[in-house]
Amino acid sequence: MKYSAIAILVVSRSTVLASNTYPVTDTEQLFCYDSDSTASGTGGTTGDDTPDDTPNEVSPGTVDPGPETGDQGTGGQDGSQFLPAPGGLRPRPNRPSRPRDGGGRRHLDEITCAGTGQDAEYTTLSQSFQNNGDGTISDLNTGLMWTEDVYGDGLTYEQVENEVTIFSLGGYSDWRVPTIKELYTLSEFNGQTGTSQDTNIPYIDTDYFNVKYGTTRYIDGQLWSSNQYTGVIFDNPNSECNFGFNSIDGRIKCYGRTSTKLYVRYVRGNTNVGTNLFSVSGLSRDIIVDAATGLEWTRGDSGSGLDWEESLSYCNDLELGGYNDWKLPDAHQLQSIVDYNRSPDATGTPAIDPLFESTQITNEAGAVDFGWYWTSTTHLDGKPLGSNAIYIAFGRATGYFEAPNGTVIGSVDVHGAGAQRSDPKVGPVPDPNYFGPQGDYRRVYNFARCVRGSSSASPDV
Questions:
Q1: In whole angstroms, what separates CA 444 from the centre of its chain?
Q2: Stretch 299-309: mean pLDDT, rounded?
């Protein structure tokens, strides 16, 4: 379904200190991908939302909202060289070197990236970490210090809040639960979800960071963030949730604070990461500048739903404010402008600063809502591998929710405004148009908001 455009202009803004600067780093995606073909060298994949060998596979449209509910997981690559380590920890694989050819990186089928607008065409600030030899890892770009390991054998968020107050490592006792923006800075999209722990390539640099897999489903490697959702999930006002990132399947979703048990990776240091400093620029006041990251954004969006290829072209062809170097943002860039204090339920707005203009839609439940926005980043999850791309839900992350007892609740927000999921790159819209444990809707025709520049801001620590 393509949504009609109703442009909404709001004029308030958030205020932050001018010294708050931080860089938005590369997603580390290596290749460009066709919209409807599997890249060469990959192994078998499944078209389902959960892996074929998952013992508690759930049929499409059903969900168990309790502690065992996890994320989706599909796709795969022959990962036989990666053997599971004791206790569910991921050993550190031999990672491919990142090409820097300056002429557009190449598709695995020897198709050049140049001119496509895909994530891998652009070289931005590479991730850079330092192992401090004491169980801590320093991010040399953001100034944050992280724990090398993840902690907890399944903790509710309330338990994590208690645990962090007594946690000490490397001689430091000022550790905290990261925000979702801080946590997302560690993500990289060379990862592949795979069909098992053996074939999974985590969405994080395992040269530096260890991961844990789920004990029942390998894809249940979600990590807590400190951001509580301001909206309502599963049509239950009492269902409070916090956002988390899953470094096993590469998604941001919201998880019940008391009903769900996840892992945690602690952080300390620079508290400026994720704090934006927006201002309106351009002769027509149609550009938003984020002085915190150095990125410039279109104030408006595409105004109507586009598939992924159309969104890439829309930004590539855009001329605005005297500039013609606009592009579709990668996953890190787009997530950097999410405002996790906002939601359609709490503020009547999308999860973005009101300086931006956002297209209003009517969602699958017939409610006033806001769109999902494409990124240029391919999600290596699904069949065929490379056929899905990442989007950020600035409106409700809806799904068709059916309880395990067969009770149909219908179309509801299942993961929260600010969630990061993925959609098929091109149509037609699948039938049924929902899939997976939480019945994620597949719209295909999402919106585009374009970006220019690259983030070179130094962290203000």
A1: 17
A2: 98
